[in-house]
Structure formats: structure tokens, C-alpha cells
């Protein structure tokens, strides 16, 4: 299961695959 979240420099959060 993928529960890791990553914030990019734009402040957008997306799951790390």
C-alpha cells in the first residue's frame, strides 16, 4: 500500500509511487 505523500515546490500533494 502506498501511504507516502510528497509536496512539490508548488505546494501540491501527490502520492509517491
Task: Characterise the protein shown here.
The chain is mostly beta strands and 17 residues long. The chain contains no helices and two strands. Strands 1-2 form a two-stranded antiparallel sheet. A hairpin with a 5-residue loop joins strand 1 and strand 2. It is elongated, with a radius of gyration of 8 Å. The mean pLDDT is 83. It comes from Phylloscopus poliogenys. This is Glyceraldehyde-3-phosphate dehydrogenase.
- Label the overall shape: elongated
Helix content: under 10%
Mean pLDDT: 83
Strand count, sense and closure of the main sheet?
Answer: 2 strands, antiparallel
How far the N terminus sits from the C terminus, by CA atoms, comes to 10 Å
Q: Strand fraction band? A: 35-45%
Q: Give the strand line-up of the largest sheet.
A: 1-2
- Helix/sheet category: mainly beta
Low-confidence stretches: none
Number of helices: 0
Overall radius of gyration = 8 Å
Order of helices and strands: EE
**Strand tally:** 2
Amino acid at each position: 500500500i502506498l501511504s507516502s505523500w510528497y509536496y512539490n515546490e508548488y505546494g501540491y500533494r501527490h502520492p509517491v509511487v
